[in-house]
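tokens incoming
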């Protein structure tokens, strides 16, 4: 039923990227104005199911650009932070993360060092899924119950680990519509090619739009930044 469905759109950095960002990651940085236009469409879209917003990586632009824009439109979002990047150049520090929480946003884990979890041994996977979670919990002063998987790459071993560690929701880059009850949530990541003319007026994202999104991103790997 429509009321049990939801769709996630996922962003990364907004505005001018800091020095040192790799080209593959730059492909997912949005200019500020088209980002604002996309949020306008989210806030006014008529839909049989909600369109929800997430951000990956924990960039400084989450606080400086995304937060004011969300608040202005009475929107909320989930911000998935790489714990190992907290406080480094271009990324959120601890006080910024707490500010997001204070303003009604949600914080989740994006691992420790933005690695491909499917290629890690058990020790390194523990660091990414458990130590990162604990570090963010120390910063936030609350439980971190959601995680987005870097690159969207996972296997049964990774999912088993996330389930064992008590994550209530796991977000991927699989694209499509999610059910509210699902533990594993697909998201639709919009890269720079979707700025301005390519953003549909109705971000309800009907099936025709989904086919278009899949076609547009067919050049990308299953996982994205």
């Amino acid at each position: 039923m429509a009321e049990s469905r939801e769709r996630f759109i996922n962003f990364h950095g907004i505005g001018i990227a800091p020095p040192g960002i790799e080209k593959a990651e730059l492909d997912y940085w949005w200019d500020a104005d088209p980002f604002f236009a996309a949020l306008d469409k989210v806030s006014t879209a008529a839909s049989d199911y909600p369109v929800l917003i997430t951000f990956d990586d924990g960039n400084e632009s989450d606080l400086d650009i995304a937060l004011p824009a969300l608040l202005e439109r009475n929107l909320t979002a989930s911000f998935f932070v790489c714990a190992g990047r907290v406080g480094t150049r271009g990324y959120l520090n601890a006080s910024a993360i707490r500010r997001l929480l204070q303003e009604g946003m949600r914080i989740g884990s994006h691992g420790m060092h933005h690695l491909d979890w499917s290629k890690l041994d058990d020790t390194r996977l523990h660091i990414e899924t458990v130590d990162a979670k604990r570090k963010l919990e120390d910063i936030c002063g609350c439980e971190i119950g959601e995680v987005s998987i870097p690159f969207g790459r996972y296997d049964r071993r990774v999912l088993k680990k996330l389930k064992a560690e008590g994550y209530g929701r796991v977000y991927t880059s699989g694209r499509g519509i999610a059910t509210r009850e699902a533990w594993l949530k697909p998201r639709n990541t919009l890269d720079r090619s979707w700025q301005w003319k390519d953003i549909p007026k109705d971000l309800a994202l009907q099936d025709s739009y989904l086919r278009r999104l899949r076609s547009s991103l067919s050049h990308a790997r299953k996982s994205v930044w």
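note: The longest strand covers residues 5-11.
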